[in-house]
Design a protein that fits this description.
Blueprint (H helix, E strand, L loop, with lengths): L8 H15 L3 H8 L2 E4 L5 E7 L2 E7 L4 E3 L8 H13 L9 E3 L6 H20 L3 H10 L3 E2 L5 E8 L2 E8 L8 E7 L8 H21 L1
Antiparallel strand pairs: 1-2, 2-3, 3-4, 5-9, 6-7, 7-8, 8-9
C-alpha cells in the first residue's frame, strides 16, 4: 500500500533514517567532505546546495527536506535517498582518475548481473547507433567527452562521484554494446548498493536528455 505523499511505508522509513543520520553530522564538516555549498538560513535552518545530474538541489539541515533549486519540486524517492546518503557518508576523497566496472566496486559482484541487466539495454536502445547523441546528452549534464570505445562521456554525477558511459558501435558480427564505469573512488562516498541505483539514475538522465534534443 502506498502511503500519503506517494512513498510506501518502507520508503518513508528509509528517508527518515537517512535524515536522522544527516542531522547527526556537523554541517560545516558535511559540506567540506561532500564538496557542496553550505548555506546559513533564518530560523535555525541551514542548507546545502548539491549539484546532481545537471541540476542543483537544496537540502535543508537538520530536517533533510530536498527541493530542486530551479523548480522547487522535490526529487523522487531514489534520488532523495542518494542525496541524503551522499551528504552523510562522503569523506572528501577526490576522484581517483581511474575507471572501474561495477563488478570491481566493493561487493560489486553481488549486484553486478542485476545492474548490467537494468542499465545496458536502455543505453544500447537509445544510443547504440547514435554516438553523437550520447556526447550531446553528456554535455547537457555538464559532462565531457572521454577517449574510450567508439564514443564515451564522463559526468560528475555528484561533486566527488564521477561516472562514464562508453559506447561500442559493433559491426557485422557483433551488435552495439554500452556500459557504465565508475571512478575508483566512488565507494568512499556511497555504498555499492546505492551506486547501483546511482548508475541507473545516470543512465535515465542521459536518455531523457537525448529525448529532449
Amino acid at each position: 500500500m502506498v502511503a500519503p505523499g506517494g512513498d510506501t511505508p518502507r520508503q518513508k522509513r528509509a528517508l527518515a533514517l537517512a535524515r536522522e543520520r544527516l542531522a547527526d553530522k556537523l554541517p560545516t564538516l558535511v559540506a567540506a567532505r561532500a564538496g557542496v555549498t553550505h548555506l546559513a538560513e533564518a530560523e535555525g535552518q541551514e542548507a546545502f546546495d548539491v549539484p546532481f545530474l545537471g541540476r542543483i538541489y537544496r537540502v535543508t539541515y537538520p530536517s533533510g527536506d530536498i527541493a530542486d533549486v530551479e523548480s522547487g519540486q522535490a526529487p523522487h524517492h531514489a534520488a532523495s535517498l542518494i542525496l541524503l546518503h551522499y551528504l552523510a557518508q562522503a569523506d572528501g576523497t577526490p576522484p581517483a582518475g581511474e575507471w572501474v566496472a561495477f563488478r570491481e566496486l566493493p561487493d560489486g559482484m553481488i549486484y553486478h548481473s542485476a545492474f548490467v541487466g537494468r542499465v545496458e539495454p536502455g543505453l544500447v536502445g537509445v544510443f547504440g547507433h547514435r554516438p553523437d547523441a550520447l556526447l550531446d546528452s553528456g554535455r547537457a549534464l555538464g559532462g565531457m567527452p572521454l577517449d574510450l570505445g567508439d564514443a564515451a562521456v564522463s559526468v560528475d554525477v555528484l561533486p566527488y562521484i564521477r561516472l562514464a558511459c562508453v559506447l561500442h558501435l559493433g559491426d557485422d558480427e557483433f551488435p552495439p554494446a554500452a556500459n557504465v564505469l565508475f571512478d575508483a573512488a566512488a565507494g568512499h562516498h556511497l555504498p555499492t548498493e546505492d551506486l547501483a541505483v546511482l548508475g541507473g539514475l545516470f543512465v535515465g538522465a542521459l536518455c531523457k536528455a537525448a529525448a529532449r534534443r
